[in-house]
């Protein structure tokens, strides 16, 4: 068995076992979890993030599946956001289509690679492209969009949790008992991963770095990171959801400041 095939096989085997364990933990903890339907959906979707790596180990008969699921990390980050929001806001607004826009953009940009011929996919599996951005633009474009999408969604989740902590002091007497732990550092790590991988893909695109099999590396990094976040969200945490959305809170706070300034000027 070639060295590449060996480490890829054991990586997929280890991640698969970790994924199964996550399902067992989620099954045991689901009664104590808010937003568990989004967590279950995340658990079901996660294996798709390793489709390309699995195809690389399979026979050529599975080659048509290569390049279909690069967008999955962005979908997982969106599902994580939906799973976390009910823990922070009591009255969650209906899901708007805008929240799924990053996923839709990634799906649209995935099509050129997904619809490419088998010879092109075989060439990509042989080592991945380095340089020649015009020739391999579908590969680079979807990789860059996914990395940037993970970065943006990580920032969104971080901002949501920070807003929850910001207004928590106004609602409960012991805020430390209701804080969401570990999520902000985890999302900061996702932002850092998204940023570093964006720079890496950009460097590979223009030939500044000659990294073979960089696509598999990016896929494995995102798979490990998203599975870690899934484990983190499975852990029940005591929260005090805000009765209204933070946007409304900010609007009311801005109105109060404006009224106070108006009163002060009228004196």
Task: Report what the structure shows.
The chain is mainly α and 267 residues long. It is built from 10 helices and no strands. It is elongated and about 60 Å long.
Order of helices and strands: HHHHHHHHHH
Percentage beta strand: under 5%
Count of separate DSSP helical elements: 10
Alpha carbon gyration radius = 22 Å
Summing up helix and strand content along with how strands pair, one would put the structural category as mainly alpha
Q: Give the number of DSSP strands.
A: 0
Taken from the alpha-carbon principal axes, the silhouette is elongated
Helical coverage, percent range? 55-70%
Sheet with the most strands? none
**Stretches where pLDDT falls below 50 for ≥5 residues?**
254-267
N- to C-terminal separation? 84 Å
Task: List the topology elements.
Layout: H1 3-29, H2 36-45, H3 51-57, H4 72-88, H5 101-114, H6 118-125, H7 137-168, H8 183-205, H9 214-234, H10 246-266
Helix pairs in contact: 1-2, 1-3, 1-9, 2-4, 2-9, 4-7, 4-9, 5-7, 7-8, 8-9
Short description:
This protein is 67% helix and 0% strand. It is mainly alpha-helical and 267 residues long.
Features:
267 residues; mainly alpha; 10 helices; 0% strand; elongated
């Amino acid at each position: 068995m070639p060295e590449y095939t060996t480490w890829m096989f054991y990586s997929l085997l280890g991640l698969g076992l970790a994924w199964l364990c996550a399902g067992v933990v989620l099954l045991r903890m689901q009664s104590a979890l808010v937003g568990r339907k989004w967590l279950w959906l995340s658990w079901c979707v996660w294996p798709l993030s390793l489709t390309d790596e699995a195809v690389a180990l399979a026979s050529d008969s599975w080659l048509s599946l290569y390049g279909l699921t690069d967008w999955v990390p962005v979908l997982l980050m969106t599902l994580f956001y939906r799973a976390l929001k009910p823990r922070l806001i009591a009255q969650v607004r209906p899901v708007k289509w805008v929240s799924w826009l990053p996923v839709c953009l990634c799906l649209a940009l995935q099509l050129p690679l997904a619809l490419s011929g088998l010879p092109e996919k075989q060439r990509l599996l042989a080592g991945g492209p380095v340089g020649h951005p015009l020739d391999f633009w579908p590969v680079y474009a979807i990789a860059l969009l996914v990395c940037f999408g993970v970065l943006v969604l990580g920032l969104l989740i971080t901002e949501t949790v920070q807003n929850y902590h910001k207004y928590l002091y106004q609602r409960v007497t012991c805020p430390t008992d209701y804080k969401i732990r570990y999520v902000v550092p985890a999302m900061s790590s996702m932002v850092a991963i998204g940023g570093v991988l964006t720079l890496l893909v950009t460097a590979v695109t223009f030939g500044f770095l000659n990294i073979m099999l960089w696509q598999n590396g990016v896929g494995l990094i995102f798979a490990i990171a998203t599975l870690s976040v899934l484990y983190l969200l499975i852990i029940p945490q005591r929260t005090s959801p805000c009765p209204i959305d933070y946007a409304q809170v900010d609007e009311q706070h801005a109105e109060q400041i404006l009224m106070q300034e108006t009163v002060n000027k009228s004196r």
